[in-house]
Amino acid sequence: MRAIILAAGRGSRLGPLTNKKPKSFVKIMGRSLISRILENFERENIKDIHIVTGYKSEYFKNYKYFRIHNNSWRKTNMFYSLTLAEKLLSEKTCIICYSDIFFKQSHLKKIINSKAYISVTYDEDWKKIWEKRFSDVKLDAENFFIKNKSVKKIGGRIKDIDSVNGQYMGLLKITPKGWYKAKKIIKSIDEKKVKKISMTEILQILIDKKINITGIKIKGDWGEVDSPKDIIVYEELILDGKINGIK
């Protein structure tokens, strides 16, 4: 098994915090997001780790892990970064991780143990954290509907909070068979669109084409860092013991 960390973007919503460094080097409780992610993979004995870089890629030059550079990071979205690792996805089961999240190790273990061709983790207990992050959770929260462990709807702004079963975390697993199935559909999409399409948009396309995506349920104890306020919110929750497993 190998890991692919998508770390090409800048994270402009973090303002001055990413003026001189990539988003993944922003710190929670004094430790960078990237160091937390890498530690979790190493604890699960995943040593075949690849980082897709872009903005301020020189920050990664002293890392012992493999690097793939997205030269078009300014004009492309996260899914395009993943396509640059196409050979890796075809060869071996991959855990794909956004670089702006943190999570406790047991969440990673859960998705590692999934037997599905394509799996995503989602948080069913998401509302209380989003309520602290945003004055109106609908400003940021996205659709997520699951039935019999299969994801039916993912991404896009929500209208009815009660219809949302959770929030996608940015942690997914794809086997070579899963990638083979996905790739046949992706090839039919215009190349310009592939460069701009988001991860949730491509996942929804796969779902609409009857490719099963399994939802792996977790409950809290993680976070995504999109703004300076997020850092304050998460650190308070960690200190108050409302986010556990994060040191």
List keywords for this structure.
alpha/beta, 247 residues, Spore Coat Polysaccharide Biosynthesis Protein SpsA, Chain A, 7-stranded mixed β-sheet, 9 helices, globular
Mind describing the biggest β-sheet?
A: 7 strands, mixed
Task: Please state roughly what percent of the residues sit in beta strands, choosing from under 5%, 5-15%, 15-25%, 25-35%, 35-45% or over 45%.
Answer: 25-35%
**Structural category:** alpha/beta
Number of distinct beta strands? 13
Q: So how many helices?
A: 9
List strands and helices in order, with pairings:
Layout: E1 2-7, E2 27-28, E3 31-32, H1 33-43, E4 49-53, E5 66-69, H2 78-83, H3 86-91, E6 94-98, E7 101-103, H4 105-112, E8 118-123, H5 127-133, E9 142-147, E10 150-157, E11 167-174, H6 176-186, H7 191-196, H8 199-208, E12 214-218, E13 222-224, H9 228-239
Parallel strand pairs: 1-4, 1-6, 4-5, 8-12
Antiparallel strand pairs: 2-3, 6-11, 7-13, 8-11, 9-10
Short description, anyone?
With 247 residues, this protein is of the alpha/beta class. The chain is 31% helix and 26% strand. The protein has one domain: Alpha-Beta Complex (Spore Coat Polysaccharide Biosynthesis Protein SpsA, Chain A).
